[in-house]
Specification:
Length: 226
């Protein structure tokens, strides 16, 4: 089951930059990939169904509350975003499309796509980056530093791509339409968005580690006082 979970998660991470390419890959392909993404999302939650049971159990620390809020918001997004896409489908599910509301639905679909992109990247930073960016250290083993250095390099480029692509404007709803240069390389576009994902995930991971370190330090000081 662990291998299946890993395959499902990796496939979702691969498809997300492809979805962001939208008109570069064509509307029909966008709809097909969107349906595949939803199927993977459903599989992800079936595999991790115990999380929904555990959500009502135990004590909530600020960090757990934040992680849970991100996960719940992401789950809601992953349901609502495909619904808005299906309602304006032009190729795959035309029988349920709402022709009169396509313009409004398109604006909503596009704007929230970027928030879903950000939430999924934050989700990765909170749940998965630790296994990649923090390998076990062995004395004199410089190979263990390679993943961390690579993550820093990709994150630095991801920050550049984040600014160059104007992603902040989409997140703040300053832009109501997406412009794509038809002459641009599809691969370069998707690699840029993949790098942005790494940047957001790594930033989240760094803040997560800093928060944990501060929490542990405060607990240690409190124990010393006692």
């Amino acid at each position: 089951m662990k291998k299946v979970r890993t395959v499902v998660d990796i496939c979702m991470l691969i498809l997300l930059p492809m979805l962001m390419a939208y008109s570069l890959i064509g509307e029909r392909n966008h709809e097909l990939i969107g349906l595949c993404m939803f199927a993977l999302f459903a599989a992800h939650h079936i595999i991790n169904r115990r999380w929904w049971v555990a959500i009502f159990k135990g004590r909530y620390s600020p960090l757990r509350a934040f992680r849970t809020a991100v996960d719940v918001l992401l789950a809601v997004y992953m349901i609502m975003q495909p619904v808005s896409g299906v309602l304006m489908s032009k190729h795959i599910l035309t029988g349920v499309a709402l022709s009169g509301a396509s313009s409004d639905l398109r604006s909503i679909h596009m704007s929230f796509a970027y928030w879903g992109f950000a939430l999924l990247s934050i989700h990765v930073g909170l749940h998965a980056v630790s296994s990649v960016a923090s390998p076990k250290k062995s004395a004199g083993d410089n190979k263990n530093k390679v993943p961390s250095v690579l993550a820093v390099i990709i994150s630095a480029y991801g920050l550049y791509a984040f600014v160059r692509r104007g992603i902040a404007d989409y997140l703040l709803f300053r832009v109501q339409f997406a412009y794509f240069d038809p002459s641009e390389s599809k691969l370069l576009f998707m690699l840029d968005y993949a790098a942005v994902m790494v940047f957001i995930a790594a930033l989240t991971y760094g803040i997560h580690k800093l928060f944990l370190h501060r929490t542990h330090s405060l607990r240690a000081k409190n124990r010393e006082k006692l």
